[in-house]
Every structure is written in C-alpha cells, then in structure tokens.
C-alpha cells in the first residue's frame, strides 16, 4: 500500500526508511522513556499473582511503581547534576584559555560558552550580559542556582575581582578550574569506594527472590505457602518489613557517606 501511494502520487519509487528492527528498537526506547522501568514491578507482580492465584503480588507490584519511579527520577537528576558540573568545569578551562590568548573578558566568555556547550541551560542571560555590557557576575550568580552549576559562583567572584580591582582573571580561573576538578575527582573516588557497599545491598536484597526460585525448583511450592497459609502470610509480612527496612538503612548509610 505504501508503494502504491507513492507511485500514484508521482513518487516514482519506494520509500527507503530504517529497517524494521531499528524501528522496533526505537519504539521500545520511546516506550521505556515514557513509562520507565518501574512498570516492570507491576508486570512482575501481575505474573506472580497469576502463578500464585493471589492478588497480593499485584498489589505489592503496584505499590512499588511510585517508589521505583522516585528512584529513577533521582538517578536522572543526579546525572543531570553531574553533566552540568562538567560543563561548568569545561567553561572555566575554556575561558581561562581565551583570556590568556589576549581576548577581552566579554568576548572570551562568549567564545568559551559556545565551545564548552553552554552554561547548563541558563546561558542566555549570561551571554546577553557579556555581549551588551550588563551585570555578568549577577547573571552568573543567578545561573549558579541550578543544581550542578554552583561553580559559577566562583566564576562570578573571579569576574568581579578582575573587573573591579584589575586582578588577573586567567590566574583566578586556573585556580577555580583546579578546585572544581579536584572536587569532581573526589566525588568519583567516593562513588567508586561506595560501589561495593551498593552491590552488597543489592545482592542481599535479591536473596529472598533467589530463595523463592530455589524452593520452586525443589517442588516446595513457596508461593502457595506464602500466599495461602496463615504462617506463610505472617512470614511474608515480616520478611517484607525487614527487607524494606534493610534497603532503607543501607541507602541511608550510603547517602550519609556521600554527604560527608
């Protein structure tokens, strides 16, 4: 039908689009971005509800959707924070190079903002202030309110000192760039050190599911015991409470170490 429509419309040939596999992969990516991975919890709950002939897994899966969505959004926000911080570091390094090359601060900031990929979504006011002689430190301070762009406060201080008191802007930018890079390296080192604790927490959290699979493989029917007997329901409630408390406590320890 597509070929016929093209020929009748005077196209003179067939359309050359992406392969069906690529279109399917793109559709799956769009579906994943729209719905998120948290809906797999509901799907798993529905599957366990069918296998165990009980509505409890479905209810638990539905309750886990907002929790997993919150975790996914927090991870996305953390990634955006890190990307914005990297752009600020790149901006400081590029601006120091432009100033050292002999350009005026305003022109250097325009070139550095273009070469470093922007100022984290708030570059319009800063670029306008630099181009038309506005309050560049004030615009940088406003841009620094975005998460991850806190380093722009140091850039604003360097700019104010260099313009008002005639100090060297390149030297201050070099020190600021070194400080921001050292802070980023420290965060990366801390994240690497906490990776083992996170992996241990995830492994311990997955052990109950492994136990259920092992019991099912041995023919013990763990779902029937947990979902259709009084002692099983009690064990399920107590185990779920301990599981949630353990995950919360492990996440609290990791967050506390990162904040320190």
TrEMBL record:
Subcellular localization(s) per the UniProt record: Cell membrane
Domain of life: Bacteria
Membrane topology: Multi-pass membrane protein
InterPro entries named in the record: T2SS_GspF_dom
Entry GO CC: plasma membrane
TM regions (residue ranges): 41-68, 201-223, 229-251
Parts forming coiled coils: 173-200
Chief location: membrane
Domain Type II secretion system protein GspF: 93-213
Key words of the record: Cell membrane, Coiled coil, Membrane, Transmembrane, Transmembrane helix
Protein name, UniProt field: Type II secretion system protein GspF domain-containing protein
Source organism of this protein record: Streptomyces misionensis
């Amino acid at each position: 039908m597509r070929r016929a429509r093209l020929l009748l419309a005077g196209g003179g040939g067939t359309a050359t689009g992406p392969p069906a596999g690529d279109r399917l992969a793109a559709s799956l990516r769009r579906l994943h971005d729209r719905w998120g991975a948290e809906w797999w919890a509901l799907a798993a709950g529905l599957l366990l509800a069918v296998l165990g002939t009980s509505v409890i897994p479905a209810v638990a899966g539905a309750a886990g959707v907002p929790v997993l969505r919150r975790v996914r959004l927090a991870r996305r926000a953390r990634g955006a924070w890190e990307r914005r911080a990297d752009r600020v570091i790149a901006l400081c390094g590029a601006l120091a190079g432009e100033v050292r090359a002999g350009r005026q601060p305003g022109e250097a900031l325009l070139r550095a903002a273009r070469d470093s990929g922007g100022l984290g979504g708030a570059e319009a006011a800063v670029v306008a202030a630099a181009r038309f002689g506005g309050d560049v430190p004030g615009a940088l301070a406003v841009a620094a309110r975005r998460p991850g762009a806190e380093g722009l406060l140091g850039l604003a201080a360097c700019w104010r000192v260099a313009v008002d008191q005639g100090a060297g802007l390149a030297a201050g930018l070099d020190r600021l760039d070194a400080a921001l890079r050292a802070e980023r390296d420290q965060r990366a080192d801390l994240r690497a050190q906490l990776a083992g604790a996170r992996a241990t927490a995830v492994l311990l959290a997955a052990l109950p599911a492994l136990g259920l699979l092992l019991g099912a493989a041995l023919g013990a029917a763990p779902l029937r015991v947990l979902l259709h007997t009084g002692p099983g329901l009690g064990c399920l409630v107590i185990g779920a409470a301990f599981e949630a408390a353990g995950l919360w406590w492990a996440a609290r320890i990791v967050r506390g170490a990162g904040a320190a």
